[in-house]
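W.,

You were right to be curious about this one. When I first looked at the sequence I had no strong expectations either way, so I just let the prediction run and decided to look at it fresh. Below is the sequence, 1680 residues in total, followed by the output.
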Amino acid sequence: MTTMTGEGSAESLLTAGAVLPTDTAGAGDRAVPLTARTYRHPALDDRPVVRLVDAALGEGEDIAVGFLGLTPGAEPAVVGLGPRRPLAFPEWVLVHHPADGRHALAVVPELQKLAKQVRSRPKAALDGHQGIADRFARTLPHFLPTFFEQAARVFLAAGQDTYATQLFNKARKAEAQHGLPVDLNRLDEVYVEFASAKVVSATALAGYAKELSAQLPADEALDRFCRLALRAAAAGVAPSTQSANAVNRLVRTAAKAAGRSGAAAVADREAAYLTELLRLPVTAEAPAGWWKAHRPVVTALAGGDPAIRGSLLDLMPTDRDNLVPWLALLTDTGALAGLSDPDVPEAARPQDGSVGWLRRFVRLAHSGYRRRRLPALYPLVERMADRLRAELTTSGEALSADGDLDLLDLLLALDLPVAPPKERETLDLAQWVTVDGERDLLAVAGDDRFTGALRRGLDQLDDKPNALRRMVGTPGVRPLLTDWLRARIRDRFTTGLPYLPESVDWLGRLPVEALRLVFDGLDRTGDPAGAGDLGSALGVDLAEHVARSLRGGILDELGWPDWELAWQEVTGGDRRVEVTQQEAWPYLIMGGPTTVRVLGAEGILLRHDLRIPAGDMWGQAGYHYVDGQLLVYWRSESLGYDLRGYWHSSPGEPQPIAGDHHGSQPRTNRITLPLPGGGRTTGDGVLHAGDTAVPSERPVITDGISHWVHRRSEDDGDRGWHEYDPASGTHGRRSLPGFLADLPVAGSHLQESGSWLRPALSDRATPAAAPVDGLLGWRVVTLPDGSVRGEDLAGRSVTVAPGQEPIAALVLPGDDRPRAVLKGLVLVDPDGVVSAAAGPPSSRDYTPGSLPLPGPEFLGNLLPRDPAGSAALRRIDRDTAAALFAVALDERRAALAEAAARAAAQAATRSAPPRATPAVASRAAAVPASPVGAPGGSTTGDDDRDPLVELVRSTVPAVSHDAVLAGVAGMLRLAARVRTDLDAVTERLTRSLSAPAAVTPVPTVTGPTDEQLNQALDGLRGSAYGANRAVHAFAQLQAFAVQRSAATGGDPGVRLHLDGPSLPAALDWWPVLGGVAAVAYRAAVAVTPDDHRETLRALLAELDRLGLSGATGSTRWRRVTLHLLDDDLNDSDGNRRPRRPGILPLPDGAFIAVRSSSGTATGYSFDALHHDPAGGFAVPEPYTTQSSTPVGDERPDGWLAGFLTEWAARGPLPWRPEAAERFAELTGVTPTAAKLVLAGLPYVDSVGTVPTELRRALGIRQVGEVKLAFGVLREASPQLRRAVVSALLPDEPARLWTDGPDVDAAAAVWNAALGRRVVVPEQLLAEAVRAVRSGWGPAKALPALLDPGRSVELSTDLAFEIKGDRARQSDSGATGFTGEVLCSTVALAAWVAHHTPAGDPCRAALPAALAVVRDRLANPRLLLDVNQYVPLPAFRQVAGTPSETGAGWERYGAIVLATYDGQPSPALRPDLLDAEGTDPYLPALRRDAAKPYPMEVALRLIHDPRFAALLGDPGEPTGGARAADGTWWPQDPTRSVPDLVAEVAGEHGLGVDAAAVYLMLLAMPDPTDRNTAKWTGWKPARLKAARAELAGTDLVVEASRSRAGRSLFLPGPWLERDSGQAPIEGWKVALFDLAPDGTAGLGVTVPFAPAADLYRRAWRRLRDGDRPRFDNLPTRGAHR
């Protein structure tokens, strides 16, 4: 027995297929009575057949099984409730079309077979169902709806929802495409069924509303669709924008049909529908478009019903992008009052209260990757405060801001209960800055619970100067920021000497505003020579740092002689040679480009020269060393990048290697271990010498008896050590060796991945390895206080700070206390201070002759180079270090001075600038560290000894080893570099700190956003990038104004723009500086949208304020391209500084504003604006000028100010359509293009189109006309477009309003650059661009076709020759007649002949174009490439001996084939074709005999007299008369073949009009309703009557088909074609020489012969018995 607890349980049981008791409550409307129906059959004797059937479908079931010979044997009995199911395929066919039942049953076995594939091979199953559907479409189309529906059910049951949706849509398409009758009741059930399964698209549901509207009275259609939509929503289908629009259309139709008296009832029905829908939770998922469509009605309902307002508050959009309009909707409906107003009814409040609503809203607002501010929320929360406080007091709960700092600050300021932050939670200050948070955060900072989270938020701002500046200006954070900065500076400058260079660099990047908080006492005299010592202010004692580092230990004290020897042998001493290190524990393998060494504690064991075939290795080689044998293997290009290799004992026999690879590395380089019985375990297998399969590698350890591997556990997914048996290759339980399991402190936690146990490298103890019983071990644990402890088997232990991981304990001579070695070979002294580091920055960068160190796994092989010297370093004092440091500092300063002198000498060789800036030019250039082995200024004469090394030798005589001495010198040079870097930072910061803060105030940036400016300038700016919602472009403009007003006559002290005031990266608006008049014209014209107008007004005001608009501007502003060498952009460490926009202040009020950069061969070019009040435009060193152009329009001074005054007085410029007509007349551009020019070229840069409102204002009817105009206008460069629009604005701005735009001047600018275009009717050109897709596009080809004499392509012969594998132009840069031009011209000529009437000037030009093309084809040097590769050997077998051969080619008749390879692209010599334009060899070239090449089709048509007749003048109409304009359409059979019309009418008993429509359906490729009306000139009523008469016969099918444009079709197959070709009846394939699948050879389906010929040919086919009809379904033969 099944126990049910509610409606949900009953629904789920129904879904699972259960039969419920008849009295089950809450089963819903899906539950229907099930009857047990009993049937009998003579072949079954007395055995009955019982079927459970929906009671409503019982009679249909009786009919269906009756087809099988079963008859009812008893009265049906209701036995329970089951899910509602409509009659499906094949039962539906058996019931409604019993005569076709055998065909439906015949496919059942095939369907059962396909059903088994749906889960495993869904695409194949879909194709199989489609194949059956294609057969039905040609034979029994009425099967298709139920067939597709049943197929959708099969896919749905298999979880293939996407395919199920496609099949459901195909069912609906089949109904319309074949004009099938529709049972609306059945269809309702089908829609609900599939909507409940979430496979009905919104478009499909809205399409059903149209179906209802076409078949039912308006009120009934509305009622039925609303019921369906409610059922679908109850089943969980979210309302859609399409369904909302459908309801609104039905409401309008119903209200119009009902009249005034019935309008109220229609409104009530709509209100009832929406009221019920708003109560359903799924309505929350409705998109913004649904709410927008229903907003007026929802607002009205909410105003009168508090429950509706409460329902709205219970809902919440699922898309956070809809929250702003959602708040607006709640405001308009008055629902927001339910969150705060104490007097509203309880029904008007959300069910979860104001607190619950706020939580839901905040959770959604801050979902997703990027958080956003919602300014409208904060005032609402203030109004909700009392209600929130009361609810929270009652519940005892607290609110959470979910990361919204402004909201958190507001809640705390309102004294509302707020939950404390979670442990280690961070308040994201960086995100708060990004979203432009506005509050002062005083309330947050005043709550001690959030202090830690705020500090962690500040940690995220390290190296984010803009965010730090914002924190300085935030009152709540400023005190905490001060403490944080002090702690940060203290921590950075006490970590140890190796990290001080990075700390100094970090300090130099801090914004001055932040430094003011912590360095109030720094010397601010502004004199560089007397600058205060920042190092003293920071407490940095560099001499003590040096002493401490030497006492703590340096890496140069240790060495491995055999390693150094191997490195010398492998690299030849060249540091540029790339070396790979791979392990073979306890040995190490060092590989170079040509040789490899295997070494261990006992020395070099193996030397081997690589035998890898040249050019075969991709990436690096991999190595394994097993039992004295070395395996060399690599990713082989000859094996498709699979592995290949050899054992060194057989180097001449490389063979495939089985195994994994990792990118360019064959190995992951895990530690592998030797096995006692031979071989080496990789943790995932055993490798023996001679093997050709390499096992994968896993971390593996051993205690000498057992093995463990580190892998993911199958139980909990965690990684850890698992027992491992190398012999069997099996992995066991998770466990640990005793050493690792024995934790030193209770409560500590083992870091398994960093802990290990292995055989010892040797039996000797070294500074980093102390073997115990032949083993080495290392255990890393996290102690209870968070610190990390590392300990080896010998008991040597080190403890480091939380977050660090020690990898070894190192004991140096002179001090028994272990030093911690961290990852990256960082050495930490016993007091926790870093004394040395292998990676940059490092003292080893300043140590001559230092060699790379071995990998950290082999530190145990390092030995002290000079034990006595090391012991002496442990005792070195500060005074000794200070004396040595003073000499190193002098050396460093001398090197810097020498580098500055060299830079000055280099600058002298450059082109001298017009005016130098002494203070800037004389600054010493920063230099990188002296190269290893040649410290700057350290050698004299022939003595190559390093003076600093010699000084160390004499000062600390106990140190005798050269490498240790060099290491000490390197540490001293590192400290000297820190000191000079500190000096440079001190100088810069002192200058900045000494200046009063008010000298260069940071402006409050106001103005439009970049996104708004981008839209307003669209069409005038050219391509643009960087448009966002920030106000960066106007920030640049206002920064220019601030810099101009703040500039003084003194030395700014800035060498590069990178050191000056920063500029935000913004939209590239600078191109409009050469077309400000164009911007002004666009702003003034009335059709410009108001928001764009205000944006442009703000831009013009800024440009006028800066003087960037006219002649005066060109004397003070220039746009320049500057260049810097690579070395000029290096910092003092030799690293490349990041390039960014910025301002370079110059003396006397000048400055250079740099926008962007691009790389060159020697450095970088910078796009910049140069402002110089004196007009000298001198560029300081190290910049050089590459280009310099004036800025501003060539107009009188003050023109922009005068324009702005006139504009303010006169208002927008009225639209003058006659001006656009004049521009089109003068230039030949299309009327729409002219309108866009006179509108200021809006939207021409973007990929979209013109908004509907603007199209209406300009009088543009079709979107296609806009696209065509865009193509015409984009032939002009952005600079030319700006010049054309600028010319529309007269020099005297007032004349723009009095005389109108200067059209003649603008046309002259256009024509001077591009020439006047051939005038082509715009509608014809737009249609051609849309319909004809060819290589030589209609936009250029159609003007050439109408005036071939002006076309270079149609009037110029070219020479061709065979080059490579095809025919190519002898002069590749020449323009003239080619195969592409031929195909495009022929296709377009046929298209124009079909789309223009006889007597039209465009059609009259076609014969001349045909004659020109024939002239071009007579060119003996013309070769036409068919653009399709063919197999030459196969063609030769068919063609035999060539007609002619030459160097690299052979000719067969008119076909020329390259012999460059076996796959040439054939070319045709048209002068050798026969009279019909073909060649007998051509069929042998085709891959598909039914599809000739487009070139073939074009050449055949050029020679076809019927094609010439089509293009020629058809003369006078045979019947009727010409139209009033003197034209007539040959496609009208009543004019071209009136006798045939009469014959058809008599044959079929039709009226003349119906017979004419039938002939057009038979013989024309596109007899759309619009074309039929155009060809005949009939009024709509006459055409409708003719179609209705024809539809009443069996000659046609009445249906609705996509892209057809008509409702009548010939019976038979319907070809849905791709590539932009309209669908067509299959019967017409032969009529238009199409391929069997309907493909047109030239890409257009138009007549290639006169219309009269086609009509007679089509009628002849009918008379001969070839009638349009459905195919006969093949049946199986009789069984024998």
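Here's what jumped out at me. The two ends are 53 Å apart (CA to CA). And, maybe more interesting for your project: Residues 303-484 form one domain.

Coffee later to discuss?

I.
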